[in-house]
Specification:
The chain has 298 residues and is mainly alpha-helical. The chain contains 15 helices and no strands. The longest helix is centred in the middle third of the chain and has 18 residues. The chain is elongated, with a radius of gyration of 34 Å. 31% of the residues are buried. The N terminus is likely disordered.
């Protein structure tokens, strides 16, 4: 058989090249850091947390030069949208409270509302600075905070301080504890006790415990006359409830309340144990009276 000429042979199929995967490269336009554009605002410095905020102790704060002029811009600074400016203004409010309280008093209710708002802010620096401001307000104004012009703001402030003292963020919690302690030291016990009593029944057990500690401190400052004005029976009943609280701080505060009551009630009695037992049995159910007597005898 004759061979087919090569020209008539089927062409050898060539292997088709494989398709290459398309790679789409997206480029993000980078700012020209080296070029100044006078039509663009300069980029702000990168914030490294709250490092730019100084927590100045009260004793290191100084009086304000030209306070009559400075006071006119205080509220504007406190209401700024720049949180660093608000912190600076809160420190100015602290200086006014400590050195120029007569100038701060007419706008004290507005300042307190800003302090409360800052205390609710999730930014820790703003929160802590506002708590420090509340301490200085307590030191300077004391019982004036319970007057009609500021009592509503004080109620809100008290709640926020108890909340902050109850939270897990340690450095905020510690500062709030200091502020609450300063409040108790700066104010007359009886009217403050009237404010605090509502919180021993609070649904938040940590708030309840913090309030109990403050109540115990208040009562330790009171004479028998003040306790009687509030109500001895109410106080001992409050102690009974707190002794059964879930948190140890509340139970320890209850023991402090009982100790202060015992000292005041039996101060002029010859047989102190008998006088205390008689008081408890007259005003409490038998099982609770027995607990109170055992608590003192132990």
């Amino acid at each position: 058989m004759a061979l087919r000429p090569l020209d008539n042979a089927m062409p050898i199929a060539q292997e088709r090249p494989k398709k290459q995967a398309k790679v789409v490269i997206t480029t993000q336009k980078q700012p020209d850091l080296g070029v100044n554009d006078e039509n663009k605002a300069p980029l702000p410095p990168i914030s490294t947390g709250d490092a730019s905020i100084d927590y100045v102790p009260s004793e290191n704060l100084k009086a304000i030069v030209d306070p009559e002029i400075k006071i006119q811009g205080l509220i504007g600074g406190l209401e700024s949208k720049d949180w660093i400016k608000v912190c600076e203004s809160l420190n100015d409010a602290r200086r006014f409270a400590l050195y120029h309280s007569d100038l701060l008093l007419p706008i004290l209710d507005k300042v307190m509302l800003v302090i409360i708002k800052a205390m609710k802010n999730p930014r820790s620096a703003l929160c802590k600075t506002s708590i420090m401001a509340s301490s200085d307000v307590f030191k300077s104004f004391g019982d004036k905070l319970l007057e009609s012009a500021t009592t509503e703001a004080f109620d809100q402030l008290l709640l926020q301080l108890l909340l902050k003292a109850s939270q897990d963020k340690k450095f905020v919690c510690e500062e709030a504890d200091k502020a609450v302690k300063t409040m108790v030291e700066a104010m007359t016990p009886l009217p403050l006790l009237q404010k605090l009593k509502a919180f021993v029944s609070h649904s938040n057990l940590r708030i309840r415990a913090k309030a109990a500690v403050s109540i115990s401190r208040c009562i330790s400052k009171m004479e028998l006359e003040g306790m009687e004005e509030f109500g001895l029976v109410s106080l001992v009943q409050m102690a009974v409830e707190l002794l059964n609280d879930r948190l140890p701080d509340a139970r320890e505060a209850a023991r402090g309340i009982v100790s202060s009551l015992y000292e005041a009630i039996t101060e002029k009695e010859e047989n102190k144990q008998e006088a205390w037992q008689s008081f408890c049995q007259s005003n409490l159910p038998a099982i609770h009276a027995q607990t109170m007597v055992k608590l003192i005898s132990s």
